[in-house]
Design a protein that fits this description.
The complex is a heterodimer of chains A (311) and B (376). Chain A is an alpha/beta fold and 311 residues long. In chain A, 32% of the residues lie in helices and 15% in strands. Chain A is built from nine helices and ten strands. In chain A, helix 2 packs parallel to helix 9 and helix 7 packs parallel to helix 8. In chain A, 46% of the residues are buried. In chain B, strand 14 and strand 15 form a beta hairpin. The N and C termini of chain B lie far apart (62 Å).
């Protein structure tokens, strides 16, 4: 049994931007990649092509669960579909209907801020998946990044457990203000063995925070250059359970950027100075912290970057 | 006269402020107090969660802790089955995991104390693997002799003395012995610790001791006595939260490196596994000296640069802006907003978005996620 959560960005600005870049059919193509069209929204192209990601997941096993969330600035009800609910029978119809409704509501809204807060929706998804799986055993793997040293006996134990994973389909870049809370979520996800996969649809091919998220939780980060590539990416890279993924060669072996951006110039730095009070990153040494205004003691600054002396 | 009999003697009142044995530990029909201990542990957990966390105070986030493990003959006592030693080791292992999860750039050192002598087991390190290996190397047969609080404190003090002024210096003593055999005056040692701004906390395993209470009070630490293994875990988990630090304490800028997680194609050894090959083809290269690391956070042994990832640093922010406690309310109908379970008796309401959550979700949100699903 495995539970899959799909989180789709529901901000009309970013969907509209995507449609401008790739043509009118974009929205239909994306929706059809996630759920197969049925009923009134059937788009009459490529008729034989009725495979979709959600249906493929539900079709793999009768005990598989599916949750679909929409995250956006004005979304009241984030969970738009749950296969556990009895009234939600027709996954495709409901997801398409509700997603369209959300996008229409959002486009009628007057504020024109692009971007969407992912944190609350992700917390919602993790809460729900914890309920479904009932496995919250802490991972013996510690919090440090990189592979755990003792993987062998642990993977045997987790083979029979129900697995949880989340797929984030993002269009715009995540805002910097959400950084801290999102990282917390991703580290707790790693601890609960929830794997987070990310597909980025927009111009943002590095992914930033979301690429780090995939690396922390053991998922994969992919960038779809065209909306047409979304279905291929979802089906080939994200359909299988994380436990079987080690059998296949991993596609993205790019280096993951773990650099921090400094508070003074907002540029990425590979080594910098961290204030001991507020933990903000400074790219150059300054005697007074720019954020919390704490005055640093200068006594032992010159020629000694290693003040952590071993006694 | 009747009043006096009800209230008991005046001197008994001195014991009532802490844990009132008669009220908290009620015997059941069989004369066992296990149930009441379990209830007490659950109650304190709930209390800790519902308690409002302070905001906007200066916290000692960079913590350097020396953990003193009592290895006297009292540790082999079977009061906590299978033995105190085994229980403490288990609790310490889980404490280390939780600690480094919440304090990514902290360091811990271990001290053992047996035969009245204190010995350093590991140096100050931020590497959880080293600490766990050191703990695993200890065995119950190692324990013996008496405990000496003064020697342990002096060794911890000597280790913490060299630490820079901006870190929060702490000592945590796990103590099973009911006596301490010291070479000199223990009160002067406590005075020294106080002067050096070292926070001394202790966890007792047998009974409350006056000297520990004095020490904790003088140095602004915490002292508590574990009732059973579960309660011990709870007491340890209290120490994972960073303490508030004095405004007068120094602050400083620390030089850190943010290495990439990358595929390393050249053949190389890593600094963390000197005897074998690196455990993965991917790794981290120190930004200053180019040494290879398998995992971070770590302090580069070659150039002593602290290596962390930006996300790990970002996680520490949640101590500075914690998720506000939810209000406990009575509900009869409706379902949990997050997981759609039907609520039966109690619910927890976020004061900001007025949405109600179940107990399980509330625990998960406050202990691990720290983001309210309803708020914007």
């Amino acid at each position: 049994m495995s539970t899959l959560s799909i989180l789709v960005e529901a901000s009309s600005c970013s969907w509209g931007k995507l449609a401008c870049q790739h043509g009118d059919r974009t929205i239909g193509i994306i929706l059809r990649a996630i759920v197969s069209n049925s009923g009134k929204y059937k788009i009459k192209i490529n008729r034989g092509f009725q495979v979709s990601f959600c249906n493929a997941h539900l079709g793999q096993s009768s005990s598989n669960q599916l949750l679909v969330f929409a995250y956006g600035r004005n979304v009241e009800k984030k969970m738009i579909y749950s296969s556990a609910r009895s009234e939600d029978r027709n996954a495709s119809r409901i997801v398409v209907d509700r997603l369209r409704q959300l996008l229409i509501d959002d486009s009628n809204n007057s504020d024109a801020i692009i971007g969407a807060p992912l944190g609350p929706a992700l917390a919602h998804a993790f809460c729900h998946m914890k309920k479904d799986s009932r496995v919250t055993t802490a991972d013996p793997c510690d919090d440090s990044l990189g592979p755990a040293s003792s993987n062998s006996e642990q993977s045997d134990a987790s083979a029979e457990k129900p697995t949880c994973r989340a797929v984030v389909i993002s269009i715009t870049q995540i805002m910097g203000s959400e950084h801290g809370s999102l990282m917390n979520l991703f580290f707790s996800a790693a601890k609960q063995l929830i794997c987070v996969d990310v597909v980025s649809l927009g111009d943002d091919f590095t992914g930033g925070i979301l690429q780090q998220a995939a690396d922390i939780t053991g998922g994969s980060f992919m960038h779809a250059q065209k909306p047409q590539a979304l279905l291929k990416i979802l089906m080939t890279n994200m359909l299988t359970d994380p436990t079987y993924r080690s059998a296949f060669s991993k596609l993205s072996h790019n280096s993951v950027d773990y650099r921090a951006s400094c508070v003074c110039h907002q540029t990425l730095v590979s080594s910098g100075w961290v204030c001991s009070v507020c933990l903000s990153v400074l790219c150059q040494y300054t005697p007074i912290c720019k954020v919390c205004k704490a005055a640093f003691t200068i006594r032992n600054i010159p020629k000694k970057p290693n003040r952590k002396r071993k006694s | 006269m009747d009043d006096d009999e009800q209230k008991g003697y005046t001197w008994e009142a001195g014991y009532a402020e802490g844990l009132n044995i008669n009220e908290v530990l009620v015997e059941d029909e069989g004369g066992s107090i296990e149930k009441s201990i379990a209830k007490y542990v659950a109650d304190s957990k709930r209390k800790a969660r519902l308690e409002k966390r302070p905001e906007k105070i200066r916290l000692g986030i960079m913590r350097h802790i020396m953990i003193v493990i009592d290895c006297s003959r009292f540790m082999t006592n079977k009061a906590m089955p299978p033995s105190r030693f085994v229980v403490v080791m288990k609790a310490l292992q889980s404490f280390l995991e939780r600690f480094f999860e919440q304090n990514p750039i902290a360091q811990i050192g271990l001290i053992t104390c047996k035969d009245r002598k204190a010995e350093r087991l590991t140096m100050m390190t931020g590497n959880i693997r080293v600490l766990k290996e050191a703990l695993n190397s200890m065995s119950e047969a190692f324990c013996g002799g008496d405990f000496s609080l003064q020697n342990a404190l002096q060794l911890a003090c000597a280790n913490l003395k060299g630490m820079p002024g901006h870190v929060s210096r702490e000592v945590l003593i796990v103590m099973a012995a009911l006596s301490s055999i010291d070479p000199g005056n223990i009160f002067s040692t406590i005075e020294t610790m106080k002067r050096m701004n070292i926070r001394c906390s202790a966890i007792g395993l047998s009974a409350e001791m006056f000297i520990c209470k004095e020490m904790a009070k003088a140095t602004k630490g915490e002292y508590s006595v574990a009732l059973d293994p579960d309660h011990l875990q709870l007491l340890f988990s209290k120490h994972t939260l960073p303490p508030s630090s004095a405004k007068s304490s120094e602050c400083n800028a620390i030089h850190v490196g943010f290495p990439h997680h990358e595929l390393i194609k050249t053949r190389s050894f890593c600094v963390c596994h000197p005897d074998s090959k690196p455990i993965s083809s991917r790794g981290f290269i120190c930004t200053q000296c180019g040494a290879r690391h398998c995992s971070i956070p770590a302090e580069c042994p070659v150039c002593k640069l602290t290596l962390v990832a930006a996300p790990q640093l970002a996680r520490a922010f949640r101590h500075l802006q914690p998720l506000a406690a939810f209000q406990q309310i009575d509900v009869t109908r409706g379902s949990c907003y997050a997981c759609e379970t039907r609520l039966t008796s109690e619910g927890f309401r976020c004061e900001k978005c007025r949405l109600v959550f179940c107990l399980d979700c509330d625990t998960l949100l406050h202990e691990s996620l720290h983001v309210c699903p309803g708020c914007k």
